[in-house]
């Protein structure tokens, strides 16, 4: 089979020696990249949905932005010739008031993904380990690799939730960061407050724990008792090694602007600030976030979250009634355990106008979107349930 290097050789010498071909090595003029980075899968955003279809592949909020939020963005556009406030103080002060902490105990970033990257960079030297559940958020492995850290993936329990005992047991001398994602993207279960407390008691207090709560606003579990969800807002100041991460991308509907935040001990946040690319949060993003936290705006946003939660419950109940083994769903998405049928089911959904996120050979994550998408999903998945589960 002709290879790139052979073509090059033929171009130069006019012929390829069939007996002793040149070794198929990297041409010596190829730019030297870190091999582990060059080997990373390229980022592929979900396919665009067909014109009258549904993009349910990125856990986005299906509602248009609030008019007051659009106004705040428009107003701040008038000063884009200036750099933004480097630490988004107005936003941090608003969040600090909300969580009963000082503004120094809050850091903002260009999405909470950027913050997770900063914390890993702050804590890990090459070869240090980051422990997290798997399957979980698809960004974690790449962020670890970019930092030169080693991913240690601990399998989820059979119910698709985190196995916190196994996570704690996976901590070694080399572990610098443990990530807990609750509710877990893409599978849906949450970590309970009791499970998390027991986990924190086992993890050495000099190892950073990141509690990723990108979907906490969609949780409707009891607030007390054994099923109560962990809630980072109630844990501020409790642990010297805990940082809680949240985002405006999902419940607040600002995915396109890139703004998230972390709450935690000042020395850890200072270290994460040092690893940031400066000025990542634009003035528009900060203004939109501040406007979203105003009482009237936030009340409306929370009503929308209630609608999405209702839709999620309706969708999950309908799919379970059809015979699908849908795990608990505490975010704005449901998980279909399609196993080796994953690609085929994703294709059938696509043909029906639905773009979902396929993770072959495990399953499919479907975001809860427009009301009419629920009917389309139940119709098509009802036809597939008998032949498509793992
Ligand atoms: C969406 C998401 C985030 C945050 O995304 P940003 O848009 O970067 O704020 C973080 N963690 C998980 C698990 C997510 O699903």
Structure explained in plain terms:
Helix 8 links the parallel strand 5 and strand 6 (208-212). The model is unreliable at 1-23 (pLDDT under 50). 37% of the residues lie in helices and 14% in strands. It folds into 2 domains: 54-59 and 296-384, Alpha-Beta Complex (Aspartate Aminotransferase, domain 1); 67-294, Aspartate Aminotransferase, domain 2. The chain is α/β, with parallel strands linked by helices and 390 residues long. The relative contact order is 0.15. The chain has helices spanning 4-13, 35-38, 67-77, 89-99, 112-123, 139-147, 164-169, 193-202, 266-274, 283-292, 295-322, 342-351, 371-384, and strands spanning 54-55, 106-109, 129-134, 150-155, 175-181, 208-212, 242-247, 260-263, 333-336, 354-355, 357-359, 363-367. Helix 5 packs parallel to helix 6, helix 5 (112-123) crosses helix 9 (266-274) and helix 11 packs parallel to helix 13 (371-384). The chain has a 7-stranded mixed β-sheet, with helices on both faces. The protein binds pyridoxal-5'-phosphate (PLP). Pyridoxal-5'-phosphate binds at residues 59, 111-113, 137, 181, 185, 212, 214, 247, 249-250, 255, 260.
Can you give keywords for this protein?
390 residues; alpha/beta; Aspartate Aminotransferase, domain 1; Aspartate Aminotransferase, domain 2; binds pyridoxal-5'-phosphate; aminotransferase
């Amino acid at each position: 089979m002709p290879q790139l290097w052979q073509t090059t050789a033929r171009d130069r010498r006019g012929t390829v020696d069939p007996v002793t071909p040149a070794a198929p090595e990297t041409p010596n003029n190829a730019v030297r990249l870190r091999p582990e980075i060059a080997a990373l899968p390229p980022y592929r955003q979900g396919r665009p949905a067909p014109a009258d279809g549904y993009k349910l592949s990125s856990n986005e909020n299906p509602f248009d932005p609030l008019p007051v939020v659009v106004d705040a963005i428009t107003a701040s556009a008038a000063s884009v010739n200036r750099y933004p406030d480097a630490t988004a103080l107005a936003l941090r002060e608003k969040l600090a008031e909300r969580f009963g902490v000082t503004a120094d105990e809050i850091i903002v970033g260009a999405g909470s993904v950027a913050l997770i990257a900063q914390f890993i960079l702050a804590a890990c030297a090459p070869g240090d380990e980051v422990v997290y559940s798997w399957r979980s958020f698809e960004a974690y492995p790449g962020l670890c690799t970019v930092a030169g850290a080693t991913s240690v993936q601990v399998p989820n329990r059979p119910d698709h939730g985190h196995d916190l005992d196994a996570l704690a047991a996976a901590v070694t001398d080399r572990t610098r960061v443990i990530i807990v994602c609750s509710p877990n993207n893409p599978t849906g279960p949450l970590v309970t407050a009791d499970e998390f407390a027991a986990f924190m008691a086992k993890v050495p207090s000099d190892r950073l724990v990141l509690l990723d709560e990108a979907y906490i606003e969609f949780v409707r579990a009891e607030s007390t008792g054994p099923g109560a969800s962990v809630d980072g807002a109630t844990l501020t100041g409790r642990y010297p090694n805990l940082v809680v991460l949240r985002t405006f991308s999902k419940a607040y509907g600002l995915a396109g602007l890139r703004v998230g935040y972390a709450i935690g001990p000042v020395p850890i946040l200072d270290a994460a600030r040092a690893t940031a690319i400066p000025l990542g949060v634009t003035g528009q993003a900060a203004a939109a976030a501040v406007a979203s936290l105003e009482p009237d705006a936030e009340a409306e946003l929370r009503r929308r979250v209630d609608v999405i939660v209702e839709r999620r419950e309706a969708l999950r109940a309908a799919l379970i009634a059809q015979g699908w083994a849908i795990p608990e769903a505490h975010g704005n998405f449901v998980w279909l355990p399609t196993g080796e049928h994953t690609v085929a089911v994703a294709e059938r959904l696509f043909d029906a106008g639905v773009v979902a996120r396929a993770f072959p050979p495990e399953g499919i994550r479907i975001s809860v979107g427009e009301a009419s998408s629920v009917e389309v999903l139940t119709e098509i998945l009802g036809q597939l349930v008998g032949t498509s589960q793992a």
